[in-house]
Design a protein that fits this description.
With 243 residues, this protein is mainly alpha-helical. Helices cover 78% and strands 0% of the residues.
Length: 243
């Protein structure tokens, strides 16, 4: 199992896709941070906290997890992968853990940079900043969300073998389905969503109109989504032909 995990991590960090996505994630996160700091005036503490949520890692890790799993069928490498690791459940576990670890590491790097750049700019513009304790609290939440969504993406990619369909489906879930549910006042359903609702609860967002889950409950909900996707993928991986 440890050998499989090391192999998956090596495969992940040596691909151009991961490097490209990591670069895009970093650039977009820093750009969003700078724009929010510069353009917003009269910042309250809640506004400053929102600035440091500018980590695009969770979304991109979910997409990367889909590509990593569904891509095995798209590029017809699944047969050789299973031949090298016949225990399919172990292979799936290693791939899931590798994307969770990659999401955590990338989010840690991106979030720390966002916090450094954001804090320096806030101080330079005489705007309020957050104490180290609050920054540390935000940091572990961002890292956890990225890890969970990376693992969730692997499950989605295993359920939906078509990479394009899986990617579009996840984007529709996030930007159309969950967004619409919040917009029409169906927060009681939307707050359990895997791409917006539950992650917002883990972050600890509070809103008078949108009642998010408590952080502890939101973590359990996300773990449930990951477990459900993993179980469904495990069943289909055992039953499906590899060609």
């Amino acid at each position: 199992m440890s050998a499989l995990l090391r192999a998956e991590l090596l495969k992940l960090r040596t691909t151009r896709t991961f490097v490209s996505i990591a670069g895009v994630t970093l650039v977009l996160s820093l750009l969003a941070t700078v724009l929010q700091v510069v353009l917003q005036h009269h910042l309250a503490e809640s506004d400053v906290r929102a600035i440091f949520y500018s980590d695009f890692t969770p979304l991109f890790m979910a997409l990367l997890g889909i590509m990593g799993m569904a891509g095995e069928w798209r590029h017809r490498t699944i047969t050789s992968t299973v031949l090298a690791a016949p225990r399919r459940l172990n292979l799936l576990a290693a791939k899931t853990l590798s994307y969770a670890v990659a999401g955590a590491v990338l989010s840690l790097f991106v979030t720390v940079l966002v916090m450094i750049v954001g804090s320096v700019l806030l101080s330079a513009l005489d705007k309020p900043t957050l104490p180290i304790s609050d920054l540390a609290d935000l940091l572990w939440r961002n890292v956890l969300i990225a890890a969970l969504l990376g693992a969730f993406g692997v499950g989605i990619g295993g359920i939906v073998r078509n990479q394009v369909v899986a990617l579009i489906g996840l984007l529709l879930m996030s930007f159309v389905v969950e967004f619409t549910l919040f917009g029409v006042g169906a927060e009681s359903v939307a707050r359990f969503g895997p791409t917006r609702g539950a992650p917002a609860g883990i972050i600890g967002l509070t809103d008078s109109e949108q009642h998010f889950l408590a952080p502890g409950i939101a973590i359990l909900v996300m773990l449930g989504w990951v477990a459900l996707a993993f179980a469904a993928t495990a069943v289909t991986l055992r039953r499906r032909d590899l060609v």
